[in-house]
Amino acid sequence: MLNSLFSQMLPRGQTTEGNLSSVVAFVLLGFSDLPPNIQGFLFGIFFLIYMSILIGNGLIIIITRVDSVLQTPMYFFIANFSSLEICYVSVTLPRILVNLWTQDRSISWLGCATQMCFFLMLGATECFLLAVMAYDRYVAICNPLHYPLIMNHKMCAQLAAGAWLSGIPVQIGQTCQVFSLPFCGSNQINHFFCDIPPLIKLACGDTSLNEMCVFVVAILFVMIPFLFILGSYVKIISTILKLSSARGRSKAFSTCSSHIIVVLLFFGSATITYLRPKSIHSARTDKMLSLFYTIVTPMFNPLIYSLRNKDVITALKKLLFKKTV
């Protein structure tokens, strides 16, 4: 469906002005400025990171399905988050590995549009899912007596589906808008995947409308969920501080701290990337920030949610060592 939609937008032959050929493929410069031995080292590092993301998040999905103790709303959303992280990193990291291994950095116009569309859709899903997880913790801590009634199976399924699906039409529209721009100059994208800021830099003509749309969408999909999360945790912390039991406060803070760490890692880097004006964008800074929300967060997600959680550690031990008992 996406391929057929983007195929209709493919540049045909010549532009209307003169004999300037339209760009029909791009080159992802990525880490091409580094020496070959450093690129080989990066390939090894990124390959290990990708495997750790697949295995770590995959284990979280499995244990939340097979262990009855973890079949609660909180772990249902954590399993969704782990599934999302696998999909999210698989949009960009395999392509980075291929570019580093083969040194073939070209990507078709259609391939670039498809990669960016899925990247944006999954990024929007992550923003909404983190907000849903914050709401789950808010209800659990601030309204514990009604928690089982509010966060029932139907509500959890609806919230998860909403997080996965809400951003799809907007991000398809944004991708179409970006790729409807004329690309009639350089085709070299100074990034390791197709993203909005470096693509807008390559466009010919006035891109102010596109920059405004990117800003508006970033407000809707990044800032509003972040402010919702912030508001939820203000209420949560206020409620926790009112608890008379020190053990109760410690347990409540423990269940929330993992989520707060992930929120800060993801939203911090994404906000700086998409809410800065085009004039102060730096290719090197964009690459470093992108590494945080495309690779670092998915890599740390299993560690953050397992090493800090006794229930997850117990479930992992049961899964990994049950055959030896």
Q: How is this structure best described in words?
A:
It is a single chain. The protein has 325 residues and is an all-alpha fold. Helix content is 73%, strand content 3%. It has helices spanning 2-7, 36-66, 73-102, 109-142, 147-150, 153-165, 168-179, 196-202, 208-241, 246-275, 283-307, 310-321; strands at 25-28, 106-108, 188-189. The longest helix is centred in the middle third of the chain and has 34 residues, at 109-142. The protein is globular, with a radius of gyration of 22 Å. Residues 13-21 have low confidence and may be disordered.
Task: Enumerate the spans where pLDDT stays under 50 for 5 or more consecutive residues.
Answer: 13-21
Order of helices and strands: HEHHEHHHHEHHHHH
Kindly state the percentage of residues in helix: over 70%
* Structural class estimated from helices and strands: mainly alpha
Q: If you compute it from the alpha carbons, what radius of gyration comes out, rounded to the nearest whole angstrom?
A: 22 Å
Number of strands: 3
Counted by DSSP, the helix tally is: 12
Side by side, the strands of the main sheet go 2-1-3
In short:
This protein has 325 residues and is mainly α. 73% of the residues lie in helices and 3% in strands.
Note the topology.
Elements: H1 2-7, E1 25-28, H2 36-66, H3 73-102, E2 106-108, H4 109-142, H5 147-150, H6 153-165, H7 168-179, E3 188-189, H8 196-202, H9 208-241, H10 246-275, H11 283-307, H12 310-321
Parallel strand pairs: 1-3
Antiparallel strand pairs: 1-2
Helix pairs in contact: 2-3, 2-11, 2-12, 3-4, 3-11, 4-6, 4-7, 4-9, 4-10, 7-9, 9-10, 10-11
